[in-house]
Design brief:
Blueprint (H helix, E strand, L loop, with lengths): L5 H8 L16 H26 L14 H8 L7 E3 L5 H5 L6 H7 L23 E3 L8 H13 L6 E6 L6 H12 L4 E7 L2 E2 L2 E2 L10 H6 L4 E5 L3 H16 L5 E6 L21 H9 L2 H11 L5 H23 L20
Parallel strand pairs: 1-2, 1-3, 3-4, 4-8, 7-8
Antiparallel strand pairs: 5-6
Helix pairs in contact: 2-3, 2-11, 2-12, 3-9, 5-12, 6-7
The protein binds thiamine diphosphate (TPP) and magnesium ion.
Thiamine diphosphate (TPP) binds next to strand 5.
Length: about 350
């Protein structure tokens, strides 16, 4: 791989028949890997729960699910601190949960309950928990990228070692604001890491129908920002690359750009496959991508290294199941906000 350029790597990473093998886990503590495995399983189970309840009609608004993409959020979060400033977008359950935020307020939010992350007024795309460093998700594609750059600039002006993270998609990079943000980040040497989750689709349109099949790191290069492309379903590769970028930003080294190639198992929104409306997406593709499952690959790698067993894995799945089911039950029984609170957060300082 080392002698390939990023465009050649993209073409390989985009082929789901490749990279289904185990990882080399050298240099990692078993406990850290098991923690990342646990986090990915929790996120997966939480999103599968959302998919099922949306299908049943229990959830009123849309949910954009990232099942299959868990290694990116979990791998990136491993080197972040609660004082860092992380920004997501419309598909951001994992970005929030991977920082250690509890699941129940997410469930409460999609159920419109007062204990939700946005007091039940926002739904799946309006998540916020500054306590863990998550500064917010919004439905406007690329809408948070410039905000992340601003938050990184603030950290620099405050002379803090904190970094900002802008999660964005392969569709979001088609928005002009991203290119202005890259330029500003470079010119001002802002501690921000752009994490581009390239799942090869923007809504229902495959990357090849929207852009040349080239790595999006070309846009970082155009702005003189160091960049790397990785297999986004290989948590070890994501984790180690992000850690280098974060360390560099903390030391005053300015911005970096990480492109992680992945795939979402569900369609663009909710539980459907989108095969009926999808272009260049077939059940066979989805089946192939399932074989590159980031959770299955880490599990198998741990078992191969004899630091984990099938029995321990089954017990972990059962424990996570119980935790997530209890969180759903608790969110369902939580109260709705009072109708009088409807306009409370529409205007600053209660002004009308
Ligand atoms: C400014 C803006 N344009 C269009 C949309 C409609 N829209 C919602 S998600 C999406 C695709 C985004 O694709 P990508 O950035 O690759 O993220 P992914 O959905 O693949 O995670 C589009 C076009 C929007 N929400 N905001
Ligand atoms: Mg995409």
């Amino acid at each position: 791989m080392n002698d390939l350029n990023n465009d050649q790597k993209l073409k390989l990473f985009a082929n789901p028949k490749l990279f289904q093998d185990n990882f080399v886990l050298d240099g990692y503590m078993a406990n850290d890997l098991i923690e990342m495995l646990t986090s990915m399983i929790k996120i997966r189970k939480a999103e599968q729960t959302l998919a099922e309840h949306r299908r049943l009609g229990d959830i009123g608004g849309p949910v954009h699910l990232g099942v299959g993409q868990e290694a990116i959020a979990v791998g990136c979060s491993a080197s972040l601190m609660a004082t860092d400033r992380v920004f997501g977008a419309h598909r951001s359950h994992a970005h929030l949960l991977a920082l250690g935020a509890p699941v129940e307020p997410l469930f409460a939010e999609v159920l419109g309950r007062e204990s939700g992350y946005s007091k039940g007024m926002g739904g799946s795309m309006h998540l916020w928990n500054q306590g863990v460093g998550f500064f917010g998700s919004v439905p406007i594609v690329a809408g948070t990228v410039a905000l992340a750059v601003g938050a990184g600039l603030a950290a620099k002006l405050q002379k803090k070692a904190d970094v900002a993270v802008a999660y964005l998609g392969d569709g979001a990079i088609e928005e002009g604001v991203v290119h202005e943000s890259l330029n500003l980040a470079r010119i001002q040497d802002i501690p921000v890491i752009f994490v581009l989750e390239n799942n090869l689709f923007a809504s229902h349109m495959h990357l090849s129908l929207r852009q040349p099949m080239r790595s999006t790191t070309r846009f970082a290069e155009a702005n003189d920002i160091p960049s790397e492309i990785v297999d986004g379903n290989n948590i070890v590769e994501v984790e180690s690359t992000m850690r280098r970028m974060v360390d560099q930003a903390r030391k005053g080294g300015g911005p970096s750009f990480l492109e992680a190639i992945t795939y979402r198992w569900y369609g663009h929104v909710d539980w459907r496959d989108d095969i009926d409306v999808g272009v260049n997406r077939s059940l066979e593709d989805v089946a192939d991508w399932r074989l590159r499952d980031p959770i299955g690959r880490l599990k198998r790698s741990l078992i191969q290294q004899q630091v984990w067993s099938e029995e321990e894995n089954d017990a972990l799945f059962d424990a996570v199941d119980n935790e997530i089911n209890a969180a759903w039950a608790s969110a369902e029984s939580a109260p709705f906000p009072d109708a009088s609170a409807l306009l409370d957060r529409v205007y600053a300082n209660g002004a009308v």
